[in-house]
Amino acid sequence: MKLFAQKDAEAFVKSGSAEFRYNREIRLTPGAKDVLTEAGVKLVFDSEASNAIATAAPAATGSDEALWNSAEARSLKEQICDIGHRIWLREYCDGNGGNISCRLGPDRFICTPTGVSKGFMKPEMLSMVDINGVQLAGSWKRTSEFMSHAAIYKSTPEAFSVCHAHPCYAGAFAIKGMTPPPRLIPELEVFVGTVAYAPYKTPGSAEMAEEIFQRAPKHQSILMGNHGVITWGKSVEDAYFKMEITDSYCRTIIHAQSIPGGTSISGEGLGTLLTMKKGLGLPDDRYELKPAELCEVDPWTQMCGEHDRSAVTPWNPMTRGTTSDSMSQADLEALVQKLTDEILANLPKS
Q1: What CATH class has 62-256?
Q2: Residues forming the active site
Q3: In terms of Cα–Cα distance, which of 149, 153, 203, 145 is closest to 174?
């Protein structure tokens, strides 16, 4: 009988595996069970399991070691740490939130660790995993959300890097179940395209990965319901750029909602931008649409999900329950007069 002790469990946890299978020939010590349980590893008794299954992830081969220590890997690790610091400086990630990854080989990826602020990562904290999330190199446990990244790599071969964060303005749309309306700023149309929305699923789960898998081929920026944003690009910096452009766009729209009126880019104008974008080799789900189809809906009145435009209008006690268009100047003056009369009526009598 093989005894699986606490140190064995700690090594297994570092592999990033989500499930530990064992049989009658393997006895777990109480300390080992505690380590696995606290790390969220599922314990499965399988009478058919081999003794070899109850081990840590396979050790990196000689070629893996060479790849992990290569000049290319060192450069990518530095880039990921730099981007991590940038998303932290812009307040795109709180606590230890957010994660970044990139391709290193046909089935090898570098990813950030779990439980670490992205603003203060060091290259030695990163790890190398395969497409199934099995950790092959690095002593820090890989991010728990790598499988959402893997969904993009599996569905979109041209994706080189993935960035996930919790930016406030794009996150505001995500918790409203809304996508930002199109045709308002050229940069989003050319460098990002339409922003998709994926309904909430448990972060890091297979269900969340499936939602991302379906959308990634046609969308480089995806709002994750009640969670954050995930973007992909053709370089580590490019993936981050999609994040920055998405959040800046959402921020501008939220501010613009407080100003009456609004213009948008015409269908012909958007068609020109899409021609430019196609020349850059970037994906978009609108290339086959005609100008009239590109502007069927006014972005300022477009219904997004189950919410209307007023859902993102800044709260104003003077207009609560109405829209700025429905309250006339006379109505506003009457409301102000009513409030004034109430204040005067409650002043102490001299």
Answers
A1: alpha beta
A2: 145
A3: 203
